[in-house]
Design brief:
The structure is a single chain. The chain is an alpha+beta fold. Helix content is about 15%, strand content about 55%. The protein has a 4-stranded antiparallel β-sheet, covered by helices on one side. The chain is globular, with a radius of gyration of 14 Å.
Length: about 90
Amino acid sequence: MEITGEKVINAPRDLVFAALHDPAAMRQAIPGCQRFAEIGENRYEAEIALKIGPIGGTFAGLVRVFNVDPPMGHSLNAEAAGTTGG
């Protein structure tokens, strides 16, 4: 799956870049995120609970940050596995 798009944030670039590397800020920014924790340099574990209609699931995954170019941006790679339930 590839997610693309653009969102304009009315804040200084360096503050936005810092927030994208802050586990607490990322947890708040990701819908359904129950846990987002740093496990190494540019590596994070996440747990996300989502529900779409009658189907819900919990997903655990790893997020890796690469191509870091402060404060211009970075790339993310995420891998997740989950279970579904009603």
